[in-house]
Specification:
This protein is an alpha+beta fold and 703 residues long. The protein folds into three domains: 160 residues, Aldehyde oxidase/xanthine dehydrogenase, molybdopterin binding domain (Aldehyde Oxidoreductase, domain 4, 2-Layer Sandwich); 161 residues, Aldehyde oxidase/xanthine dehydrogenase, molybdopterin binding domain (Aldehyde Oxidoreductase, domain 4, 2-Layer Sandwich), CATH 3.30.365; 265 residues, 2-Layer Sandwich (Aldehyde Oxidoreductase, domain 4). 26% of the residues lie in helices and 21% in strands. The strands form six sheets. It has a seven-stranded mixed β-sheet with strand order 9-10-7-17-14-15-16, sandwiched between helices. It has a five-stranded mixed β-sheet with strand order 12-20-19-18-13, sandwiched between helices. Strand 15, helix 7 and strand 16 form a beta-alpha-beta unit. Helix 2 runs parallel beside helix 3. The longest helix has 28 residues. It is globular. The relative contact order is 0.11.
Length: 703
């Protein structure tokens, strides 16, 4: 066994300066500065708990500072259920090392042996009493040094804050309506701005008559980018409507027929590439199953439209944004504005919640372009509801085709999955071209780069969770990434996982029926992953699976997956009622996420994920004609209402001694799949097209 010290956590190795992660104030506060942002998932609370634990201070002393470039650590994008796994582990090491540094100084100055010192709420105590505190040494710059390898964090048994539920730090302001959100900002001298989008994808602006503008309105134009600025929000909105009606555009059909979208994907000329293959000895196939699954594009549908504030000061621009990646956004702003990154400051402020890449980054460029017309004044750019639903990046339409076979004993002999989809990431900062919405509209335009899929070693994109977790002797998984992108696509909660888990778990129910086996027992028979099997048993027990009673129009289904095949394990059982529409009545979730820092926060994430998945499964689809998106209102893009929310019950499999895994996304795919399998159980049809509306179920094959 090697005696080499354990390497630094990834995020800390990339940002090793301890003073970038935390500092102490003489007033008795710990200021923590992570590189991850709060988007409603409660990460600030979990990180504060980790810091309090390692520093031996009360949680109330810990303040978490929002990300701002260039001072905060650059931790990339807050995504992929990786915040505790990456940022939390890095912060734990940084705080543990900081504690050791301060105690060494206290020992040297007091003459008390280091191992005789302890910390109580930031005070250093020896056998004879108090010898100092973090606060008394706060001005000594003791953390102006790099982190060093080696494990210093407390063992799980010594933690007294992490692992216990804690109230969310961000909720009081939100509950009591205090101005916490970016949308609430009203700095002195504020101007309000609205952007005018084209009437068709790819349209070019021919004429924008300034004569259409009311008095007191400023026009900002750069090629086909067009915006108005005014002293009041009402005047900006009025001016935008008048100017939009007066503009002339050159436009053409650029979108495929909506009803033929699955065929359009299938016919795309891009190659189908094998990404996983296994050829172990298997019995002959005695029974065969085939099924194809289609999901249309999906919108983020954030309740609050995207917003940003920008201010130009000479050759520098400052941006306030609810982006999930401040440094990544800065990179793409620099490309689009043709500026040095050092001339752009991005400050994160909470905004509309979103799991994935919505319009937050795009509206930041809109705000910067508009603010360039009013130097020295802050400009608040707010999208309309139609712009939010119609122009934010969408999750790609996906086509997943599965074939599988059973041997003579009823065991799985072979399994094949073919995924066809656009890429699932066009986030800023990941390529040579800016991916921001307005970049192709500029007078000196940038081409729109196609979205990409990361490899499976990074969790994948369209192919995420396309490799079954079950024991399969003969396996083939393939991916066709469609590079033509008539609708801009990017990351949505789970990326390709919800569709792939739905497809795989639906076929698992199909195979179980062919084998004459109960869906639970059939899955357990083919699971070598003990942690997957355990969450499946726990969820089934919570739902009373084995003793469930039959009722007319009521069905129960199950699904299990390990998110990204790298992250947390999650099993879901869903109960639905089929009447004039499908309604999810109850959902049971069992999850194994290793160490859980804030159990209540983790449960919030799993519950929210299940509700979000229910909305997508039953209601959501982007609609479009040959030129533009038409589902740009709540009437044309319905989401789940409060009255339709199922009762959700969560149980966490406790493993505090194991590394933490994320909570925001593992339940999403299994929830979609469990609802589909519950529909199969109640109606005797296999849902093949999302959402599971009466119209789509009418075409579903009988089972």
């Amino acid at each position: 066994m090697s005696d080499a010290p354990k390497p630094l956590p990834t995020s800390l190795a990339a940002n090793p300066r301890l003073s970038r992660w935390l500092r102490f104030t003489p007033q008795g506060q710990v200021v923590v500065s992570p590189g991850k942002v709060e988007i409603g998932q409660g990460i600030l609370t979990a990180l504060a708990q980790i810091a309090a634990d390692e520093l031996d201070v009360e949680p109330a002393r810990v303040a978490v500072r929002a990300v701002a470039t260039p001072d905060s650590p650059d931790e990339g994008v807050t995504s992929g259920s990786l915040s505790v796994q990456n940022s939390g582990v890095a912060l734990r090491h940084a705080c543990a090392e900081a504690r050791g540094i301060f105690l060494q100084v206290a020992a040297q100055s007091s003459g008390v042996a280091l191992d005789a010192l302890r910390v109580e709420d930031g005070e250093f105590l020896g056998p004879q009493g108090r010898v100092g505190s973090y606060w008394e040494l706060a001005d000594r710059d003791l953390l102006d040094c790099d982190a060093t390898p080696g494990s210093r964090a407390k063992p799980p048994a010594a933690r007294r804050v992490a692992g216990r539920s804690a109230p969310r730090l961000d909720l009081p302001d939100k509950v009591f309506g205090r101005p916490r959100f970016l949308h609430d900002q009203r700095p002195d001298g504020l101007l309000h701005a609205r952007v005018i989008r084209p009437p068709a994808r790819g349209a070019r602006l021919l004429e924008a008559p300034a004569s259409a503008l009311p008095p007191g309105v400023t026009l900002a134009r750069d090629g086909s980018f067009l915006a108005v600025l005014a002293e009041s929000e009402h005047l900006a909105e009025t001016a935008a409507r008048k100017l939009e009606a007066a503009c002339r555009w050159q436009e053409a059909d650029t979108l495929p027929e909506e009803a033929q979208l699955a065929e359009w994907l299938r016919a795309a000329p891009d190659p189908m590439e094998t990404i996983a293959e296994r050829q172990d000895a298997a019995g002959d196939v005695a029974q065969h199953a085939e099924a194809g699954f289609f999901r249309p594009p999906i919108a983020h549908a954030s309740i609050g439209p995207s917003c940003a504030v920008a201010r130009w000061d000479g050759e520098r621009v400052e941006i306030w944004s609810h982006t999930q990646g401040p440094y990544n956004l800065r990179m793409d702003l620099a490309k689009a504005l043709r500026m040095a990154e050092e001339a752009i400051l991005v400050r994160h402020v909470e905004g509309a919640g979103c799991y994935g890449h919505n319009g937050a980054d795009d509206v930041a460029l809109d705000a910067a372009l508009a603010a360039r017309a009013a130097p020295g004044r802050p400009v608040r750019m707010l999208w309309t509801r139609a712009q939010e639903l119609g122009w934010s990046p969408f999750s790609s339409a996906m086509l997943v085709e599965v074939s599988a076979g059973l041997d003579a004993s009823g065991g799985i002999a072979e399994f094949a999955v073919e995924v066809t989809s656009n890429g699932h990431s066009s986030r800023p900062g990941r390529g040579s071209l800016p991916t921001l919405l307005a970049a192709p509209d500029l007078a000196d335009p940038f081409p729109q780069p196609p979205a990409i899929n990361h490899g499976l070693q990074r969790g994948g994109g369209a192919q995420r969770n396309a490799v079954p977790i079950y024991r399969v002797p003969k396996l083939r998984v393939a991916l066709k990434t469609v590079t033509a992108m008539p609708l801009r696509t990017s990351a949505m909660r789970g990326l390709g996982a919800p569709v792939n888990v739905w497809a795989i778990e639906s076929v698992m129910d199909q195979l179980a029926a062919m084998a004459g086996a109960d869906p639970l027992e059939f899955r357990l028979r083919h699971l070598d992953d003990a942690r997957a099997a355990e969450v499946l048993r726990v969820a089934a027990e919570m739902a009373g699976w084995r003793g469930r009673a039959r009722a007319e129009g009521v069905g129960m289904g199950m699904a299990v997956a390990r998110y990204k095949n790298l992250g947390a394990w999650c099993a879901v059982v869903a109960e639905i009622e089929a009447a004039e529409v499908i309604r999810a009545r109850r959902i049971w979730i069992a999850a194994d996420m290793g160490e859980v820092v804030n159990p209540d926060g983790a449960a919030n994430q799993l519950e929210g994920s299940a509700i979000h998945a229910t909305s997508q499964a039953l209601k959501e689809a982007v609609r479009f004609d040959r030129r533009n998106v038409t589902s740009d209102s709540w009437e044309s893009y319905p989401i789940l209402r409060f009255s339709e929310v199922p009762a959700v019950q969560v149980k966490l499999v406790e493993r505090p001694e194991l590394p933490p895994l994320g909570a925001g996304e593992p339940a999403f795919g299994p929830t979609v799949a469990a609802i589909a399998n519950a529909i199969r159980d109640s109606l005797g049809v296999q849902p093949r097209v999302m959402p599971f509306t009466p119209e789509n179920l009418a075409t579903a094959p009988a089972v």
